[in-house]
Write a structure and sequence with these properties.
single chain; FAD/NAD(P)-binding domain; 3 domains; eight-stranded mixed beta sheet; six-stranded mixed beta sheet; binds flavin-adenine dinucleotide
Length: 349
Amino acid sequence: MEIDFLIIGQGLAGSLLAWELIQRQKNVIIVDNNQPNASLVAAGLINPVTGMRFVKSANADQLLPVAIDCYQKLADFFNQTFYIKKTMLRLLRNNKEATACSKRFKDRDYRPYLDKIIPSHPDINTTFGLLRQKQTGYLLTIPLLTALKDYFISLGAYINAEINYDEIKLTPTLRWNSIQPKQIIFCEGHHAATANPWFSALPFQPVKGEIITATATAKVQQNILNYGHWFIPLNNSQFRTGASFDRDSLNTAITSEARDILLNSLKQIYPALTVEKINKQQAGIRPTTLDKMPFVGRHPKYSNFIIFNGFGAKGSLQIPWHSQNLANHLLNKKPLAQASSILRYYHLF
Ligand SMILES: Cc1cc2nc3c(=O)[nH]c(=O)nc-3n(C[C@H](O)[C@H](O)[C@H](O)COP(=O)(O)OP(=O)(O)OC[C@H]3O[C@@H](n4cnc5c(N)ncnc54)[C@H](O)[C@@H]3O)c2cc1C
C-alpha cells in the first residue's frame, strides 16, 4: 500500500501531526505499540510564564493562540471539551521571586499573561504573596488521544504494532511491511533517545516525572496552584499534584519517595487540604532536550526520515504550532522554525 506519511508513535506529537496532515488531505498511517506514554500521564498544563525569573516561554505569543485554536477545533469536531481554561496562582516563595515578578508587570509584553499580585489567600500559606496568572489551563490528554485514536481507526489509518527499526527497508523503495510511505515521521517520545538508529545522536535529556491523582476530604480550592510543584483541581474534591523530576531513574516505576515529596510539598502550602484517598500514582518520561527546544526536521542523509520530538515538559503548548509548521514545510516547502530545526545538530550525525 502506497501512502504519503507513516507516523511512528501516537502520543500527543504523532496524534496532532497526523490530524494536521489528514486535515490537509494527506494519506497517513500512524503506528503505535500501545505502551503507556508521557502524553497519557501528563498533566497537560499550559503555563506561558515559568521559572524563577518569570520568563515567557519561547514564542509563547505565537504558540498559545495556535494551541487554543487547535484544541477548540478538535473539541468542535469531536463534540467534547479537551482544554480547560483555569486561572493559576503562583506562589512567590521569597523576596527575590517577589521582586522578579513585580518587574515583569512593568513589561508590556507580559501584560497578557499576568493579572495581579494577591497578598494573601484564605487557604494558601504565603509570606510573599501569590501571582495570579492569565491564559493558563490544562489539556485533558486521555480523552483527546482516545478520540483521535478512534478517529484514526475509523479512517483505517491506525495500526497497533511495535515498529522494529530493522523492519524498515530503505531500498528499492521505502517500506515497512506492506506499507510504502513516501516519508516516515518519527514521534516515539523519549524512546527515540535510546532506540532510534537514525536520530538517537540528537542530545535528548529525558526526565522522569511522577503524578498523583487523589480525593480530598473536603471541597478543594478551584485555582491551579504553582509552587515549584503544582496542584490542579479536577472537580470539587478530586485533584492532581505533580510532578517529580528525576534525571537518573529513567523508568516508569512509581516510588514512595516521589509520593512523599509531592504530598509534603502540597501540605506545606495548602495545610487545610487533607487527602482522603490516593486514586492513582503514575510515572512517565518527558522527552526533554539539552537546549530545551524541540527536535524537528529531516535526517541529513536519509531525507525521507523526519523527526518530530523533544517537546519536553511543554508538549501541550508547543505541539499544535509545530505540527502546522512541519506540515507547511513538508507540503509547501516553507522553512522550519530555526530554533527547533535539527539543522542546529547536523554536525552530530
Ligand atoms: C509526569 C509528566 C508530567 C508532564 N506534565 C506536562 C504538563 O503539565 N504540560 C505539558 O505540556 N507537558 C507535560 N508533560 C510532557 C508531555 O507529556 C510531553 O511533552 C508530550 O506528551 C510528549 O509527547 P510525544 O508524543 O512526543 O511522546 P509520548 O507521549 O511518549 O508518545 C510516544 C509514543 O510512541 C510510541 N512508540 C515509541 N516507540 C515505538 C515503536 N518502536 N513502535 C511503535 N510505537 C512506539 C510510544 O509507546 C508512545 O505511545 C509531562 C510529562 C510527564 C512524564
